[in-house]
Design brief:
The complex is a heterodimer of chains A (490) and B (335).
Chain A: H1 2-20, H2 23-43, E1 51-56, H3 62-72, E2 79-85, H4 88-96, E3 102-105, H5 110-115, E4 120-126, H6 131-163, H7 167-186, H8 190-225, H9 243-269, H10 272-276, E5 279-285, H11 293-324, H12 326-332, H13 337-367, H14 375-399, H15 403-420, H16 432-439, H17 442-456, H18 462-487
Parallel strand pairs in A: 1-2, 1-3, 4-5
Antiparallel strand pairs in A: 3-4
Helix pairs in contact in A: 2-15, 2-16, 6-8, 7-8, 7-9, 8-9, 11-13, 11-14, 11-15, 11-17, 13-14, 14-17, 14-18, 15-16, 17-18
Chain B: H1 2-17, E1 25-36, E2 39-50, E3 54-58, H2 65-72, E4 80-85, E5 88-89, H3 95-98, E6 101-104, H4 116-126, H5 131-144, H6 160-172, E7 178-182, H7 190-205, E8 209-214, E9 225-230, E10 233-238, H8 240-248, E11 251-256, H9 265-270, E12 274-278, E13 284-289, H10 292-305, E14 312-316, H11 320-334
Parallel strand pairs in B: 3-8, 3-9, 6-7, 7-8
Antiparallel strand pairs in B: 1-2, 1-4, 4-5, 9-10, 11-13, 11-14, 12-13
Classes of the chains: A alpha/beta (490), B alpha/beta (335).
Chain lengths: 490, 335
């Protein structure tokens, strides 16, 4: 038993000594992931992406345009007002080229639509293929239309609240007073007729309040929809002596009542659901393909795997040869650092290129990930991703002192890629200063490139391709410089 | 400063003392010093290596053998002095010159996950040999190092001796004129060592020049010239035979007789041509003489005159272990 303890202790002490002999390795092991997570914590704002919204207003309804202007200030931080247009086609064209993120189309004749008992539909167009973002846009549309409905109802409720209670009774009383006045007038009792007319007028005023409330409800809708409505008919019954005047006023009162009846009839036609939500939203996408979550994330996973493989194999490529002594052979042989590096790049490009073909084919055939764009663009996007990633790997390799150093750096790059590339969190939800870390990672550009080619069927953004190419070239030059220094005769 | 001057003179003397082969020198070191972060690697090395010879570099571990090899193959630049190979400064050798050099490093640095054949192909490509050009040479070399039957095995799966032979084949694939072999026989069994030396002599016979470092002092015997290195300084440089003479001050005669002891010492000392006598072992005397064959009859005559029955007398060839120890002792005494 004591011998077992001694034997075990020998390894215990040996391992601890070895670990302590590499303090920087330990420090990096702890500090690396800690710093990345700290940056994630500090940089992640949790704010959803601000969407640039372009509004399409009906051509002949300037009131709507005015109301949108009025609402713009209240849109909140998630929406950035990008202007108005009367052309849906123009707006959608701007959406397609990415000048705006949303196109909000207001319906024509919204008030009439609501009066006819249907909801007025506000169409919201977007080009998002990210299922999360598509859901977000739908929710955003609902929230804003809900807000508009709420405002309409609030307006109605405030006005109608005070006056709606005795409206029906007042109307009946007004009818009765009007009938009495007519009878008194026919009987020649002008004094009584005058008195009844005054009573009718008073009751009518109260009934008008009800109608006003109803009309106000409709008016609230109209206000929300920008319609011009003279909802309240003239109801004032002026008291004027003389039969002719009384007859005129009686005729006017009948006319008013008829108008009020008509208004009430319209009110009855509007279903309660429409009454409380006169506006509704309908979200539409201009994307030719709406992927599922699995399919949407597939290009990102592909980019992440390829970047990690390329960085990992390249990061060990030079450091291993430095460690086991092959550099000694290379220094004596008539071979240059450039030739060595070029050969290694070539072999790894071939290997990761083959891997890319296998993975992409598997994703297409097994997961059903579409390839809507051209194979050439896909190949270019993948080649540049691998080229830039190999650059990072070789740069790590040329600066690492040991295998463990290289592997550690490769893992840190993977960890940073998970958080700062837009793979897990949208880039827009990360503070701009921290977001720059993502711009140093090939996968940040490549996720977007691959999604564009595979899921949107459009060519990748030229600046993204250029960024990858530039990154690859600079890293190649850096690795070459470092390797030349290592090869130099001491 | 004075010490440096003395060392330079001594180095010049060593160079002069080296056996001239008549062929032109292809490597020349002049007063070479190499220091690493202030620590001395080698000091004041001066020697020449001629075409077609085997130059042995012998010294204990850490004596500066590998540093000297690296100075000559251009990996290191001398701190002082100059190293020329084929007439060019070693650290600025042209590609063409590099193509004429083969190098077998001290450690196994080939690729364990490649086969024997793939490793040799890799080495060939480092020197720009075309696939067609290397084909026959590869077969020839693998047969030369007796690895042809193992050519499809992974390098990691062959024995240590085979790995060393594979490295030798790799260093020869591009048909170099000059070979630097850094401890090629280290850690391998005596039979294989003998085979290696046999190979080196074949290579020499083909007109190649070999610079061989070794810790095995006995291997000095196989070299045309031998330099002995200790603590970064060259202790001796000469042919193996001359080194022997130099270590012991001449040739050695060993006499065995029961009566030999301390009392016979004056007897031997009086004999003509005997420069020193060692009777430390009872029954045996070792005499250092200028010319052993000429002195042996004189010794026999003297012993007979004293009625000492001789059991044996012969010229003694000291082993290189003894030579090496003597030379190092001399160096320490001088220092």
């Amino acid at each position: 038993m004591p011998k077992t303890i001694i034997r075990t202790a020998s390894f215990l002490s040996k391992e601890i000594r070895e670990i302590l002999r590499q303090p920087w390795l330990v420090v990096r092991l702890v500090l690396g992931p800690f710093l990345i997570l700290l940056l994630v914590g500090l940089g992640y704002t949790g704010q959803p992406r601000v969407m640039r919204a372009l509004f399409v207003v009906p051509l002949d309804e300037p009131a709507v345009a005015a109301q949108i202007e009025q609402y713009v200030g209240d849109l909140g931080p998630q929406l950035d007002y990008a202007g108005q247009t009367v052309s849906r086609d123009e707006a959608l064209a701007r959406l397609r080229v990415g000048q705006v993120d949303l196109v909000v189309v207001y319906p024509a004749r919204a008030y009439e639509t609501v009066q006819s008992g249907a909801q007025a539909i506000i169409e919201v167009y977007h080009g998002e293929i990210d299922p999360t973002m598509a859901t977000y846009v739908r929710q955003l549309g609902r929230v804003y239309v809900g807000e508009m409905n709420r405002r309409i109802l609030e307006f109605f409720a405030a006005e109608a609240k005070e006056k709606s209670a005795a409206a029906q009774a007042d109307l009946e009383e007004a009818r009765s007073a009007a009938a009495n006045a007519r009878a008194a007038a026919q009987a020649g009792d002008s004094e009584r007729a005058e008195a009844e007319l005054l009573r009718a007028s008073g009751s009518l005023d109260q009934a008008t309040a009800l109608m006003a409330a109803t009309a106000l409800m409709m008016g609230g809708v109209s206000q929300g929809l920008g319609a011009n409505l003279d909802a309240v008919p003239p109801t004032e019954a002026e008291s004027a002596p003389g039969q002719v005047q009384i007859d005129q006023r009686l005729a006017q009162a009948d006319q008013d009542l008829a108008a009020l009846d008509e208004q009430l009839a319209r009110f009855e036609n509007v279903p309660p659901a429409v009454m409380v939500s006169p506006l509704a939203t309908e979200t539409k996408t201009i994307a030719t393909f709406t992927p599922s979550f699995v399919i949407f994330y597939a290009p990102g996973v592909l980019a992440l795997i390829l970047q990690h493989v390329a960085i990992s194999i390249a990061s060990l490529a030079l450091v291993r040869e430095k460690l086991f002594g092959a550099m000694e052979l290379f220094r004596v042989a008539p071979i240059t650092a450039f030739e060595i590096l070029l050969g290694k790049y070539g072999s790894y490009l071939l290997f990761t290129g083959f891997l890319a073909v296998v993975l992409t084919t598997s994703m297409i055939t097994l997961l059903g990930v579409p390839l809507l764009g051209s194979v050439a663009w896909l190949a270019l996007s993948l080649a540049l991703l691998v080229f830039a990633s190999l650059g990072i790997g070789f740069a790590i390799s040329a600066t690492s002192r040991s295998d463990s150093d290289a592997v550690q750096f490769a893992m840190l790059v993977l960890l940073a890629s998970m958080f700062f590339s837009g793979f897990v969190f949208p880039l827009q939800s990360i503070m701009i200063s921290v977001r720059y870390i993502g711009f140093l990672l090939p996968v940040t550009y490549s996720i977007q490139n691959l999604q564009d080619v595979m899921l949107k069927g459009v060519p990748p953004a030229t600046p993204f391709l250029a960024a990858l190419a530039l990154m690859g070239i600079l890293l190649f030059l850096f690795a070459w410089w470092r390797y030349r220094r290592a090869m130099i005769r001491l | 400063m004075q010490e440096t001057t003395e060392q330079s003179e001594r180095s010049r003397a060593l160079v002069k003392g080296a056996a001239a082969t008549g062929s032109r020198p292809i490597i020349e070191l002049r007063n070479v010093n190499k220091r690493f972060d202030g620590n001395s690697g080698v000091e004041n090395l001066s020697f020449r290596i001629h075409e077609g010879e085997i130059f042995g570099f012998i010294g204990p571990s850490g004596s500066g053998k590998t540093t000297t090899v690296r100075l000559m193959n251009g990996m290191y630049q001398p701190t002082d002095g100059s190293v020329t190979v084929f007439g060019e400064p070693a650290h600025k050798m042209s590609t063409r010159t590099r193509e004429s050099i083969g190098y077998l490093p001290q450690l196994f640095i080939l690729y364990p996950n490649l086969t024997v054949k793939q490793n040799i192909d890799f080495s060939a490509s480092l020197y720009g040999m075309s696939w067609l050009g290397r084909r026959s040479r590869r077969r020839e070399l693998l047969q030369f190092v007796e690895l042809w039957d193992h050519r499809h095995k992974l390098a990691r799966n062959i024995s240590g001796g085979m790995q060393r032979r594979l490295e030798l084949a790799c260093s020869l694939i591009h048909d170099p004129r000059l070979l630097f072999l850094d401890e090629p026989t280290a850690g391998i069994d005596p039979i294989l060592r003998a085979k290696f030396w046999e190979s080196f002599h074949q290579l020499k016979a083909e007109g190649r020049t070999l610079f061989v470092t070794t810790q095995y002092v006995t291997e000095a015997e196989y070299c045309d010239q031998v330099a002995v290195l200790a603590n970064g300084r060259m202790v001796a440089l000469d042919t193996p035979e001359s080194l022997r003479r130099r270590a012991f001050g001449g040739e050695v005669i060993e006499v065995r007789a029961a009566q030999i002891g301390h009392f016979t010492r004056p007897l031997f000392g009086r004999l003509a041509g005997v420069s020193s006598v060692d009777t430390s072992v009872q029954g045996r005397a070792r005499l250092v003489v200028e010319d052993a064959p000429a002195t042996i009859p004189v010794v026999i005559e003297a012993l007979r005159a004293e009625d000492i029955a001789i059991e044996g007398i012969e010229q003694y060839r000291p082993t290189f272990d003894e030579v090496f120890v003597r030379l190092l002792q001399e160096e320490e005494t001088d220092a």
